[in-house]
Amino acid sequence: MEQSKVCGCTGIRSCLVCEQTVKNHGKGKDNTVVAHLPGEVWQYCPVCRKAWSKTDLQQHPVTCESHKGNSLDFHGIEILENFISSQEEMDIVRKIDMWDWKASQSGRQKQDFGPKVNFKKRKLRSDCFTGLPPFSKVLVGKMNLVPCLATFRPIEQCHLEYIPERGSSIDPHFDDWWVWGERLVTLNLLSSSYIIFTYNPTEEENNDSLQQLPAVSVPMPQRSLLVVYGDARFKWMHSVPRNAITSRRIAITYRELSEQFSEGGENFEVGKKVLEIAETYQGEVVK
Ligand SMILES: O=C(O)CCC(=O)C(=O)O
Ligand SMILES: [Fe+2]
């Protein structure tokens, strides 16, 4: 199909803009509900670290007394509320908006700081990479004070902008694990949202009851830091559906190197170079 020039969508991806302007584009996609979710969505509680079939997480602070129904242990999530102040949030957004945004898939816009990765050919190029941006130096320092992020040294930073007017979303996916390591760290700016995890059964599990696992909705409060690792990183796919975006949202995702690009790994020399560039904190958006 001839793809739209009005947005960044290609292939099966679509957004509200191209669905309204390009004939048949996005046909069949449900615009208002979470189209890809086959069954139930349970709510993750950051206090007891379980997902619940019935609960009220609107109350603040969250207590576990409202949880009812069935539950599921859900491993691999840390939520650090109020990781930054409103003033810091405003300063960061002002700096981000001084760079150009690039149209991306599914109604998102993006800005990238990191090596260029060709996932299919497994090639990494760092010649266009000038480092993480200056404002991240303080943020990464603050992350390193959190026990689960004490050793976190990001080499890539991606900014995604979501707005309801474009129907911005991100389809279920795993982040690459050839180049990127276990921890995915996202700073949530401008509005609160949620991220949906859907279990991806292995081939052996395929006919098993695990396939019946519900989707899990994890809250992403404004100004919180979300850390995804372990099972949530490697066994469950994640997505942000259209419904999760009620006003402009900017997500800053930091990623670290995988083991094979780290000390002792077969691509350590390449990784070392990338880390040196990242940690200059002199970066401009990669074109
Ligand atoms: O917007 C988010 O919080 C998730 C973004 C994401 O999954 C990605 O960039 O790979
Ligand atoms: Fe992702």
UniProtKB/TrEMBL annotation:
Residues 154-258 form the Fe2OG dioxygenase domain. GO terms for molecular function: demethylase activity; dioxygenase activity; metal ion binding. InterPro entries: AlkB-like_sf (IPR037151), ALKBH4 (IPR032857), Oxoglu/Fe-dep_dioxygenase_dom (IPR005123). Its cofactor is Fe(2+). It comes from the Eukaryota. Keywords: Dioxygenase, Iron, Metal-binding, Oxidoreductase. One of its GO terms (biological process) is demethylation. PANTHER family: ALPHA-KETOGLUTARATE-DEPENDENT DIOXYGENASE ALKB HOMOLOG 4, OXYGENASE-RELATED. Belongs to the iron/ascorbate-dependent oxidoreductase family. This is Alpha-ketoglutarate-dependent dioxygenase alkB-like 4. It comes from Holothuria leucospilota. The lineage of its organism: Eukaryota, Metazoa, Echinodermata, Eleutherozoa, Echinozoa.
